[in-house]
Amino acid sequence: TQLLEQSPQFLSIQEGENLTVYCNSSSVFSSLQWYRQEPGEGPVLLVTVVTGGEVKKLKRLTFQFGDARKDSSLHITAAQPGDTGLYLCAGVKTGNQFYFGTGTSLTVIP
Amino acid sequence: DAGITQSPRHKVTETGTPVTLRCHQTENHRYMYWYRQDPGHGLRLIHYSYGVKDTDKGEVSDGYSVSRSKTEDFLLTLESATSSQTSVYFCATKASGRGGSYNEQFFGPGTRLTVL
Q1: pLDDT at position B101
Q2: How near does any CA of chain B get to the CA of A45, in Å?
Q3: Which of B98, B104, B109 sits opposite A41 (nearest CB)?
Q4: pLDDT score recorded for residue B86
Q5: Greater pLDDT, B97 or B102
Q6: What is the mean pLDDT of each run of 10 residues along chain A (110 residues)?
């Protein structure tokens, strides 16, 4: 059983729609990260959230860290085909070990 | 881009044979990690290293061993490969220090391993 569960596992939407991806755990993390991975490549860091309740925005992407630092969400506004990819959350317990979520595969249809 | 390469990029092998995957970095990062990626499981940590000759187990370490004799190289060995080890393997590095940009992992391009 993995420490971080993501939902949904798969998401297929039309261009212009909004979506939210959830990352949940029963454990507390010192920080939480979101990565995006494209086919045939390694994941690339999008954002790190550190403080409970923190909200960070990256253009059309909004990331939130839960107040209790156990969960996080990623909201995409007006999705575009370029947003297609695998989204992974990762929790940090100590400074150097990371626990990845189960992943959400997003497809944005033009 | 942290300059991480993995070799080989693809490998097909038979059950019971030994396999070694190599990760090479040019950024002098202290920490190095080996993950495996399987559908529905995201990335799972196999082993990691916090310095030359300093390694520790991750959540799925059974059947795997690692070695780090130089800062730039981290080897993952499957002593006797099994079909359950068919997966995509990713190496990652991280600089020393805490917080901010020091928490960013940089990933290699992956190695696709098939065990028949």
Answers
A1: 58
A2: 7
A3: B109
A4: 97
A5: B97
A6: 88 97 94 93 93 94 95 97 96 84 96
- Residue A12 is encoded by which pair of tokens? 């297929």
Q: What's the 3-state SS for chain B? A: CCCEEEECCEEEECCCCCEEEEEEECCCCCEEEEEEEECCCEEEEEEEEEECCEEEECCCCCCEEEEEEECCEEEEEECCCCHHHCEEEEEEEECCCCCHHHHCCEECCCEEEEEC
pLDDT given for residue B100 in this prediction: 58
Strand B64-70 and strand B73-78: pairing? antiparallel
What's the rounded Cα separation, in Å, for the pair B2 and B98? Answer: 18
- Say which residue the tokens 């995409």 belong to: A76
